[in-house]
Amino acid sequence: MTLIASAGAFSLGDRTVNRMGYGAMQLAGPGVFGPPKDHAAALAVLREAVAIGVNHIDTSDFYGPHATNQVIHDALHPYPAGLTIVTKVGAVRGADASWNPAMTPADLTRAVHDNLRNLGQEVLDVVNLRVMGEVHAPSESSIEAPFSTLADLQRQGLIRHLGLSNVTSTQVRQARGIAEVVCVQNLYNLAHRADDALIEELAAIGIAYVPFFPLGGFSPLQSSALSEVAAELGATPMQVALAWLLQRAPNILLIPGTSSLVHLRENLNAAELVLPADAIATLNAIGGKP
Length: 290
Ligand SMILES: NC(=O)c1ccc[n+]([C@@H]2O[C@H](COP(=O)([O-])OP(=O)(O)OC[C@H]3O[C@@H](n4cnc5c(N)ncnc54)[C@H](OP(=O)(O)O)[C@@H]3O)[C@@H](O)[C@H]2O)c1
Fold this sequence. Notes:
38% of the residues lie in helices and 16% in strands. By secondary structure, it is of the alpha/beta class. A 7-stranded parallel beta sheet has the order 3-4-5-8-9-10-11, with helices on one face. A two-stranded antiparallel sheet has the order 1-2. Strand 3, helix 1 (39-52) and strand 4 (56-58) form a beta-alpha-beta unit. Helix 7 (224-233) crosses helix 8. It is globular and about 55 Å long.
């Protein structure tokens, strides 16, 4: 039995979650568009994650769209006490599967209600404002208007906690002047370390940092150094990539995504993998850091 609690826990406002969680994006159809290719398998992955101890699931109503939230609802509703579902708003999908910014007050209000309806919740646990900017890298722009809209929806009782995604340090500061921020979700993994300084900054003020694409995303990480470390430790490269993130900073929460039960169990097992110092040094060099 995997002890995912061995990786520790962290607070998202008044919620405490295991640092090892699960990202549901891979459950939608190809290109994160349309229903799961195997609905029964998607249900099984979600139920197994929770059975093993996952109490932090990341999602969005724009995955599918709607399909990922609906499968979470089908698999897990009524939700077990202690499960925290983190969703995100700020985009809509085109009929051609494109990802388009949707940050007007009407867009954000609609997105919050879509999430409430499809997840079957009266209050959303955590909502991240996903700033579209460049697709997978933040760019400086004011987020005052959209974040203020979410703060209004929070005051109306529709959202428990707020977070941010694809943002810079300046944007985090701007948002914190409007409402409390409990988490930041940006692209980060062994090979993409642009956020090293932001992680420390957030750790110092108790904000969770939740890397998206922790395994490299649509093209999973490939590195001979990673494979060699994994072979020496009797682990898989994906497990080592996750264990490296866990040791990187105490405020890092993991949401690896998979549609496979085999991969899910493999990934969750990484909660118990402790990396020796020489392995960490080798892995740090992959991202060009000492
Ligand atoms: N805020 C944002 O803008 C944003 C952007 C992207 C993602 N996210 C969130 O972050 C979560 C994680 O990102 P992600 O799912 O895109 O990427 P990821 O976790 O880095 O990697 C997922 C990919 O790796 C494969 N995989 C997973 N476990 C594996 C294993 N043990 N061995 C080999 N391959 C494995 C998956 O395929 P299989 O299905 O075949 O396992 C999938 O192709 C998402 O689920 C989503 O909730 C947020």
